[in-house]
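Standup notes
- DV: blocked on the single-chain target, sequence here:
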Amino acid sequence: MKFMILRKADANTENGVMPNEALLSAMGDYNMQLAQAGVLRAGEGLKPTRDGVRIKFQQGKPIISDGPFTETKELLAGYTVIEVDSRQEAINWATRWPVEDADGNAELELRQLYELSDFADGPGLQKHIELEQKLRKQPLSTSSYLLFDGNCREAFEFYAEVLGGDIVMMMSGGESPIADEMPAEFADKIMHISLQVGNWILMGSDCPPGMFEKPQGFHVQLAFADENQAETTFNQLAEGGNVQMPFEPTFWAKRFGMLVDRFGTPWMINCGQCAV
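- DV (later): unblocked, structure below
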């Protein structure tokens, strides 16, 4: 059973008063308890209604009204979604809401969510079932994972510079929990590394001695809007490597090129889509 804990708005939330450190910490503890109990599904705070809009339909025509909205008691400041075994369990969690919120005067509303099993069978329900099944198959993210023959660290430091990214995680063989099981020569090699570039991640590692195989059958594809930057990136990646297709106009893009860099990683660079 899923329930939504609705935190009602008040004068402070509508005025955009940010939570103090004590409340942030208390809410963090509360959410951690929900997570550790395995019942937390989602939760967010809402900005004041001055940043929102209302859309009211009259005979199918949308009428949009900008915030703020005045009826504070009917407004929301945030929500938490939990999944529990009973209504009483949901109530128990809601009553444990941090007292630091609104000096112990916060108002909550607990509402149970409809689930697909609540609806009668039919074509309409089947659409929702198919959508749920489709969404369940979709991974949270996808990432290229590159393997190297001992030069992973050097390659990723180079990629971070060329692509404007940040190395957010790096672990050597000697730093891993199984360091005593690794070959001595692997101690300073990379067991795992993650490079954050905007909203995507590039991952990689060194192969254990004697297990490296040359990458083949794929390319890491990069798309750019700025033609000059695309060309600069292509040339930087190509330095010391092998250009498979020069960075030139094509029928599908303003510029496109393929290369294998000096570390053995194959790349495709796309810039802009040609008008049809």
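- Follow-up: The CA atoms of residues 84 and 90 lie 6 Å apart.
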